[in-house]
Structures are given as C-alpha cells and as structure tokens.
C-alpha cells in the first residue's frame, strides 16, 4: 500500500504473502486516494506474475525478476510464495482476537516453526506490528527502500567552506578572466572531484570568497564570484540579502540558466520572501516569465476547517497566508495608500494560486513556479509537479524537512529530500540550506528554544 513495487525490492530473498495481506489489499482498493491507487497497482503486479501459472507452480513459488547476479554469473532472484493452506495458530493467549496484525504474526510464527533452517523476517511500515513481533521473538524490520538517505544529516547542503589557504594550494593552476562584469576562475586539484554543479563555495572572513561552481571536468572546475545582493544597489524588488546563504539563494533564483532551485531552512529564514522577490523582478521588470504560479500541499496543522466555498483560487486563499504576508512586505512602496494599492493590484494580477489536486496533465510555459511547504510531498507527487514545467519555466521548491505534517512521511522519505538528492549533480539545478533566521529576534529565540 505504501510502495506497489515493493515485491521487486528484496533481491535474492524469498517473499511470503499471508492471505490476510491479500484481504487487506482487497479492502483498500476502492477510491481515488494515493493508497487506493497503490493497492490497485500492487494487485496488477501480482496478477501479471501469476498469469498462466498452475497450482503446482504457485506452491513451488513464482520466480521474481532477478535484480542481480551470483558469483558464477547466474541471475539471482527470490521466489514469491502465497499462503495456500491453513497454518496452525501458535499465538500466545496474550494476543487474543483475529485482527489482521495478529493473523500475520501467527503466520510468521507457523513459518518459523515449520522451517527452522530459514530466517523469517516481517517487513512492515506498521510500527505497532513490529513492536508486537519483537515481543514474540520474531525479527521485524521497517521497509527501508523508500528512504533517500540513511540519515537526514547526510543531505547535500549546497555549500562548502574552503580552507583559508585555498588560493595558496591552487596558486600555480589558477586562470582568471572577466566576462560582462563577472569574474571567473579555472582551477585544478583533487578536492574538485567532490564538488557539484552550482555548489556554493566560500572562504569566511575579510577578503574571503563567495563563489559558485559553474562547470566541472574531472579534477578541473570553473567557478564564478557571485553577485553581492547584500548591497542596496543590487536589491531585488527592494529586498537585500541579510546573510551569506540568502545571498547564494538570490544568485540561484536570479540565474536564468538554473531551472530548478530548492531552498531548505527553518521558519523565518526568508525562503518565501526571497523566492517571491526574485519572481516579481523577473516577471514584472525583466519579462523573463509571464506569471508566477504558487502552490502548496493543503495539510492542516490542526483539525481541518471543512469545505470552503468559491473558486479554486478562493479555496486556496486560507492556505496562502504566507504568500499574503510576504506580499505585504514587498508592497511597502513610496507613494502612500494609492501607490501601494496599485502595486498590490499589479502584483496580484501576475500571481496565480493553484491547488495540487488539479495539476496532472498540465504544462506551464514561461512560468515561475513556487512549491511552498514541499516537505509534505511524497517523491511521487514531487515528480508529478516538477514534470509540469514546460519550456522557459523555473521551479522553486521551498520547505523545512523538520516540519512535516503528512502522516507516513519522514525526513528521509520526503519528496523534498528526494528532489535535493536527485538534482544535486544536474548542471541546471541549485540548492542551498538557509540556517540563520531573519524574521525577528522573538521568532529566532522560539525556533531554537521551544
């Protein structure tokens, strides 16, 4: 129900499907939810494996597609067994009733008793089932194939601090030039092999360096000094960067060569404000994009507020409080009340709010697409959304993987983590993790201490 292709993920191991699992699949197949779709796909996979198989072949186990090869070069793949007969109930009296979980535990105990030479492991996303299994002495494991990383601390941060003597190490191999007011350096060295395209590099301190990797070639790289968006003359829609990470983020957001930008950071680090300011500048001033499309997952933090009246945009308005708050900051223009009203109307005419529910099949041309709260997306939903981008569009994903509201998603299985990890080596993508909160001293203290 969580991953329909799970039966193909266990390499050389044999799988045993209790009858209760098939019953559970049958119960969950109706409807249009993600789970119902997964159930129907899983059933189709099982049907395909069983096509043309006789009863004797099913009892011997259906061969699964071989993912690997053994030492002799032969294909190695496990077999899929179904529960085709009644197994004795060996459950202790402490587990009464015929609940699906207890039924599966009883099947595992009977298998262990029947085949002592083999190891029986229950693989389940259900934590309580795993706890019960451990109490009965059955080995139980979480399904780990959906994890992008073993630990979220291993997630690519998008930046790297260079040693203070970096220039001394590369002194003889540096070639520098200027092009249209931009400064480039070509370097060679062993450390470069571990860099990624558009990675942010910096040497802290006075006379330091802030640069981005522009191209890689084995142990050679071209890096470019970034534009300093902290100065007033480079302000983006009146917004200046307040720290190094925000400066790197604005460089990525304003770069037409970067089609996919992901910004991670806790509340108050400026993700939405930077993305909107860059979008408005490129939409209204530079005419690079036709309009801004903003969307987010509608997962409430508390109880749901029920059905909402109105059009798609009106229904999405309560979820777009962050957009309205940031527009308030961006419309603080000179010219009094009338000037602000005109600016507000102009901006809102170029910003479209869309629901994720109606994204399938759409194509956005020359649009600046902002996916807010992207940590609440599954990898499959993330793929659906990013593939909506047509020619001339840019996708900006914003989120905080420490603030996931979707059940069954964790920091290591979130679609945002998945996108950051899969896009890091692509030359037209950029990622940076914003660490310093800039909302207010109260918000910063609350983020750290509550």
UniProtKB/TrEMBL annotation:
Keywords: ATP-binding, Nucleotide-binding
Family (UniProt): In the N-terminal section; belongs to the PINc/VapC protein family.
GO cellular component, one term: cytosol
Protein name as catalogued: PhoH family protein
GO MF terms held by the record: ATP binding
Claim: Glycoprotein is one of the keywords in the record: no
Top-level division of the source organism's lineage: Bacteria
């Amino acid at each position: 129900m969580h991953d329909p292709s799970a039966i193909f993920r266990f390499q050389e191991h044999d799988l045993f499907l209790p009858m209760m699992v098939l019953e559970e699949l049958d119960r969950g197949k109706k409807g249009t939810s993600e789970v119902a779709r997964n159930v129907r796909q899983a059933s189709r996979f099982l049907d395909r494996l069983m096509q043309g198989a006789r009863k004797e072949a099913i009892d011997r186990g259906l061969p699964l597609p071989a993912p690997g090869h053994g030492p002799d070069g032969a294909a190695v793949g496990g077999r899929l067994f179904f529960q085709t007969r009644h197994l004795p109930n060996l459950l202790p009296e402490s587990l009464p009733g015929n609940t699906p979980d207890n039924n599966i535990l009883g099947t595992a105990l009977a298998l262990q008793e029947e085949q002592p030479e083999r190891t029986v492991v229950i693989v389940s996303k259900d934590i309580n089932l795993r706890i019960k299994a451990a109490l009965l002495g059955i080995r139980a494991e979480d399904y780990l194939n959906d994890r992008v990383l073993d630990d979220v601390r291993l997630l690519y941060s998008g930046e790297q601090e260079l040693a203070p003597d970096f220039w001394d190490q590369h002194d003889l191999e540096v070639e520098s030039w200027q092009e249209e007011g931009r400064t480039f350096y070509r370097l060679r060295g062993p450390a470069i092999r571990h860099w990624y395209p558009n990675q942010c590099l910096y040497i802290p301190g006075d006379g330091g360096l802030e640069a981005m990797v522009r191209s890689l070639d084995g142990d050679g790289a071209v890096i470019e000094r970034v534009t300093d968006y902290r100065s007033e003359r480079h302000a983006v829609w009146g917004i200046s960067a307040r720290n190094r990470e925000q400066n790197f983020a604005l460089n990525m957001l304003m770069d037409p060569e970067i089609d996919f930008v992901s910004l991670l950071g806790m509340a108050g680090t400026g993700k939405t404000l930077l993305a909107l300011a860059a979008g408005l500048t490129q939409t209204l001033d530079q005419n690079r994009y036709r309009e801004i499309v903003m969307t987010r997952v509608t997962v409430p933090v508390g109880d749901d507020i029920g059905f909402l009246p109105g059009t798609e945009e009106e229904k999405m308005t309560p979820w777009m409080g962050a957009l309205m708050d940031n527009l308030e900051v961006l419309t603080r223009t000179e010219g009094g009340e009338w000037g602000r009203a005109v600016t507000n109307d102009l901006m809102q005419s170029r910003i479209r709010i869309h629901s994720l529910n109606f994204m399938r099949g759409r194509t956005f041309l020359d649009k600046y697409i902002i996916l807010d709260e992207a940590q609440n997306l599954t990898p499959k939903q993330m793929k659906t959304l990013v593939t909506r981008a047509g020619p001339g569009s840019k996708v900006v994903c914003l989120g905080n993987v420490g603030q996931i509201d979707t059940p069954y998603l964790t920091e290591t299985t979130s679609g945002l983590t998945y996108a950051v990890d899969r896009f890091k080596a692509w030359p037209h993508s950029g990622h940076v993790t914003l660490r310093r909160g800039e909302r207010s001293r109260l918000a910063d203290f609350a983020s750290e201490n509550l």
